[in-house]
Design goal:
- The complex is a heterodimer of chains A (191) and B (657).
- Chain A is α+β, with helices and mostly antiparallel strands and 191 residues long.
- Chain A contains five helices and five strands, in the order αβββαααββα.
- Chain B is mostly beta strands and 657 residues long.
- Chain B has eight helices and 46 strands.
- The N and C termini of chain B lie far apart (104 Å).
- Classes of the chains: A alpha+beta (191), B mainly beta (657).
- Chain A binds chain B through residues 36, 50, 52-53, 56, 59-60, 134-135, and chain B through 555-557, 581-584, 629-631, 634.
Chain lengths: 191, 657
């Protein structure tokens, strides 16, 4: 692997450190009565924002209270991210293509697993509703979209990656490009 | 015959015309007249739905005892802030927490007459932190916190009566001032009324304002000759350190003042060198006088008020403060005492005078130095009128009262009798414009118009009579405020609107200086009310003898508890309701059928308590009075009241658990 490739991977891995400090994902809710907007920020280790207000509103439709303390993933994720960063640094320093490939595969698996896990939480909150809830709309579920916008009664729910998610995604793309570049330049040498 | 029918026809036409004319006359007489408008006035006061006004105007409520906040230029009423009068609409003066705010040395008083608002200033410029307002009848000064728009503090002024020349402030809000309009015996005692001259005194109180917290404490009181100290303003710039009070009744009359206090050609403006007196206070000079007065403070963390009765004040007689007090003759029965933005000129508003005297601070100082006096009153030198005068405004209108200033060197004086605003040049004293107002203007207000920095865009004329200005409402009519554009050479009337109570004086400030600091909710975690219920699980009902404390949690859309049994006739039932919401603009209300008390509105994160003594057995519904949510109508509950000797157990619940 070229020196610049190693440095790029190193920078990608180091840039992931910022994910500890910025939200990864963001869900915003807009309604006529909330001109100022309501929102939830999903960080690597916590969910912040207008949780109390959102929980207050959700009781009408019988949604379970969102309690970040009960979400185990938030406790594990900081360690997983640490592992990604350390192995990424290793891949950048050691500069072996196979190691880079392994790191990227791991990144994709963890990323996909994370997205799936997030989706299952959304599904659970959106579908497992208290049958005694005050507001019941036949056929209606309240699962926010993974990415995109959806109308949930008077609220427009929008779900998009925040700074952390963008850094993770962009870092992954850069790593893939580096890998492809390395594979391309190494082929003629082998031939 | 032809001629005859012509004459008849002609007569008929004239008659018809006369009838039409008369009916037009009688129609047009019903509605008020106004100046010819030039066309774009409506767009100047139109604030688009959803957009904010440019200025907050704090207009005193007069005999309503409250203070109203309006948005200008639209004239939209934003809020009536309860200050001196009980307000069953939200429970002010009825809840256990707010009752101490209205405590006085006379006990609980549900009302006062609030005349003048005054915004706090830093370096002579309104800063939007607090607004002060006086209680005229039972002398008090209140401070309203503009982060919450709540009355934060009320201090009673002892040894005073008719607290009218209040609550004006020094340029950095070091002091708020209170002066006596009705002299009374100090200390008050049983004396013949006609012993006025020997036994009655006027007092002028300097109330220290804590620089950071705003807390009020009486620093000292001046025990003055028994005149009526009517209005006042602080010096600023070169005249900083001085305070000026208008006073009438230098005749020292105690009856039929209408005539007896109008005999002398000149009364006085009193100049007080407070910086010098401040030094005497620092040296612990003056006499501590036994005086009983209440000091009431609101706490935003306990969400309750405390009332303390204090027992002494520091007082000075004129002889104790030689060289600090001077009387300046002022024609005739002066009302306003206003200082221009440069601090160079003091304007007296002689109600019965034919001119407006403008005094020069520099000349006053020279008169003091040169000892240019015309005798003295109880040792207080009376300076020579001409020695202090910068000039007089000739032909200023009848009954000149108050003067405010713009940022271009012009003064605006209200003339009550001729019902007009007169604009004049401060340096040349020439009248440059005048405009009728409807009717009988008292005070007028320009944003920052009594400070170092006027925002000279609007002038609000506050009028005592409305007669035909609005749709009639029987014998009791509203007062009004009229908005005038003062950006051009000529004043232009833009709009008028009715006000609450009687609008005496107002203060105004660019909205941004206040809107940026607004508190939206109270943090429930920081709530230190002793009866707080911080979560639904903490709700309970506790009996202590005949007292029953109900700890209610309110959150959309239910009370916990909402079924209460075991209350007995004659119990003192205290409902302590905490609003668990942490969301802006979600108050919950509370009321009980037959409760001989007000309702209460509880803001997010706040706890309020109201007392109920049930007097008959039965079932008593309670409900939320503030439309809080889609299921607001469901936010209700029941209380069961049993006879004194019943053995219904004390139980409480919400939901079928």
């Amino acid at each position: 692997m070229k020196k610049t490739s190693g440095i790029l991977i190193l920078l990608v891995a180091l840039s992931f450190i910022t994910i500890y400090f910025v939200p990864v994902w963001s869900i915003s809710l807009d309604a006529p009565q909330y001109p100022e907007g309501l929102g939830m920020k999903i960080r690597i280790n916590e969910i912040s924002g207008d949780l109390k207000t959102i929980n207050g509103l959700n009781h009408y439709i019988g949604m379970k209270t969102i309690e970040p303390e009960s979400i185990t993933e938030l406790k594990i994720m900081p360690y997983i991210l640490g592992f990604i960063i350390i192995t990424g640094i290793a891949a950048g320093v050691i500069k072996k293509k196979s190691l880079l490939l392994a790191w990227i595969v791991m990144l994709i698996i963890i990323g996909s697993a994370g997205a799936y896990d997030f989706w299952t939480w959304e599904y659970d909150y959106g579908h497992n509703l208290d049958p005694k809830a005050a507001i019941k709309v036949p056929g209606m579920n309240y699962q926010p979209p993974l990415i995109g916008s959806k109308q949930l009664l008077n609220f427009t729910a929008e779900s998009y990656p925040d700074a952390g998610g963008i850094i993770l995604f962009a870092g992954g793309i850069i790593a893939v490009i580096v890998l492809l570049y390395e594979l391309k330049i190494s082929k003629p040498n082998n031939a | 015959m032809k001629n005859f029918s012509k004459i008849i026809n002609g007569l008929l036409m004239i008659l018809t015309a006369a009838v039409l004319l008369l009916s037009y006359e009688s129609c047009s007489k019903k509605e008020g007249k106004g100046p010819t408008l030039s066309g774009d006035e409506a767009s100047k006061v139109y604030v688009e739905p959803g957009k904010w006004d440019e200025f907050y105007y704090f207009i005193s409520g007069g005999f309503s005892g409250q203070l109203a906040a309006y948005g200008i230029p639209s004239g939209r009423l934003l809020k009536v802030i309860p200050v001196y009068s009980v307000n069953p609409e939200n429970g002010y003066g009825f809840t256990e927490e707010t009752k101490p705010m209205l405590n006085t040395s006379y006990g609980f008083i549900p009302w006062d007459d609030s005349h003048h608002s005054e915004l706090s200033q830093t370096d002579g410029i309104p800063d939007g932190r607090w607004v002060f307002i006086n209680g005229n009848n039972t002398p008090r000064i209140a401070r309203i916190d503009l982060k919450t728009f709540k009355t934060a503090e009320i201090i009673e002024i002892p040894n005073s009566s008719g607290n009218h020349s209040s609550p004006f402030i020094t340029p950095s809000t070091e002091y708020v001032i209170a002066g006596t309009r009705f002299s009374v015996p100090v200390e008050n005692r049983d004396v013949p009324i006609n012993s006025y001259k020997e036994n009655f005194r006027g007092t002028i109180s300097f109330i220290k304002v804590d620089k950071d917290k705003g807390d009020l404490s009486i620093a000292f009181q001046l025990i003055m000759p028994p005149y009526d100290y009517d209005l006042s303003h602080s010096g600023k710039g070169p005249s900083n350190g001085w305070f000026f009070f208008s006073c009438y009744n230098s005749e020292e009359s105690n009856t039929l003042l209408e005539v007896n206090a109008s005999q002398k050609d000149k009364d006085f403006i009193l100049a007080v060198n407070w910086k010098k007196i401040e030094e005497l206070v620092a040296q612990n000079k003056g006499t501590m006088m036994a005086s009983k007065y209440a000091h009431n403070k609101w706490n935003d963390e306990t969400h309750s008020a405390t009332s303390e009765i204090l027992t002494s004040t520091r007082t000075f007689k004129p002889a104790d403060v030689t060289g600090c007090l001077y009387y300046i003759p002022c024609p005739k029965s002066p009302h306003g005492a206003d200082v221009d933005p440069t601090g160079k000129y003091i304007v007296g508003g002689g109600k019965l005078a034919t001119v407006i005297p403008v005094f020069s601070f520099e000349k006053i100082q020279k008169a003091i130095e040169g000892n240019l006096t015309d005798g003295n009153v109880e040792g207080i030198p009376v300076l020579k009128y001409d020695a202090c005068l910068a000039g007089e405004v000739q032909n200023p209108g009848l009954g000149p009262l108050h003067t405010e200033f713009d940022d271009k060197g012009f003064a605006y004086t209200s003339a009550f009798v001729s019902s007009e605003i007169v604009k004049w040049n401060v340096e040349t004293r020439e009248v440059v414009d005048r405009m009728p107002v409807y009717y009988s203007v008292g005070h007028l207000t320009i944003p920052g118009g009594d400070s170092k920095k006027p925002w000279g865009k609007y002038l609000l004329s506050m009028n005592k009579m409305t007669k035909d200005r609005y749709l009639p409402t029987g014998p009791e009519l509203t007062q009004s405020a009229q908005l005038i554009d003062i950006t051009g050479d000529k004043m232009r009337l833009l709009s008028d609107f009715p006000t609450i109570g009687e609008p005496h004086y107002a203060q105004a400030i660019p909205a941004e200086l206040i809107s940026k600091n607004q508190v939206k909710i109270f943090n429930i975690e920081a709530n230190r009310n002793p009866y707080v219920t911080k979560s639904i699980a903490d709700a309970k009902v506790v009996r202590e003898g005949n007292d029953v404390h109900v700890y209610i949690a309110a959150i959309r859309s239910h009370f916990t508890p909402d079924n209460i049994e075991g209350i007995k006739i004659g119990d003192n039932v205290y409902f302590h309701m905490t609003n668990l919401e942490q969301d802006w603009d979600i108050p919950h209300g509370f009321s009980v059928m037959g409760m001989q008390n007000s309702e209460m509105l509880v803001m997010p994160g706040e706890t309020c308590s109201i007392k109920w003594i049930p007097d008959r057995p039965g079932i008593f519904p309670m409900y939320c009075t503030d439309f809080c949510s889609a299921l607001h109508q469901e936010m209700q509950g029941y209380i069961r009241v049993s006879s004194r000797d019943s053995n219904t157990p004390l139980t409480f619940s919400t939901g079928n658990k």
